[in-house]
Specification:
alpha/beta, six-stranded parallel β-sheet, 17% strand, globular
Amino acid sequence: MGQRRSIAGCRMLITGASQGIGRALALEAAKQGAKLVVAARSTGALNDIVGKIAASGGQAVAVTCDVADRKQVEQVADAAVQRFGRIDTWVNNAGLGMYGRLDEVDEADSRRLFDINFWGVVNGCRAALPHLRTNGGALITVGSEVSDAFAPLMGIYVASKHAVKGYIDVLRVEVEDIDKAPVAVTLIQPTAVD
């Protein structure tokens, strides 16, 4: 299991950092002295976060990234290592919600949601693990409480979060128990947030 480290000086990469949980985490981690790489599709929002962090004396870099594209995710990892020398904590936070009856939701929209919510996590884990195995660290994925439940009118979202939970549960066993790698694999399952 990964070593617990102080947030101060931690090199942290957060996907989906342009709003919500990702943004709040980035701003709080910066207050505690983390060196941050913030990634999302919204360049303007990322630049705003980096500006706020820099104005308060923190260190952060923004990298525009669509987590559904593995090459872009790998480029974020490379940018983190180039800027800060290593990655201590990787947070898979990017996500997309969608409402609609399962027999009515658009297939293209449903596939896009899975590309972000599930494949984005897979891409993040695949990009992060080689770096985290080297120095130890934490691989954190923000899932959802609905990965253990269901919610009418949110079927595709629920299915994607069930898939994320299954993937992370297996990855945790493979990395922590079988490989005995110095990496803590964690799934956080928050409820709805503003």
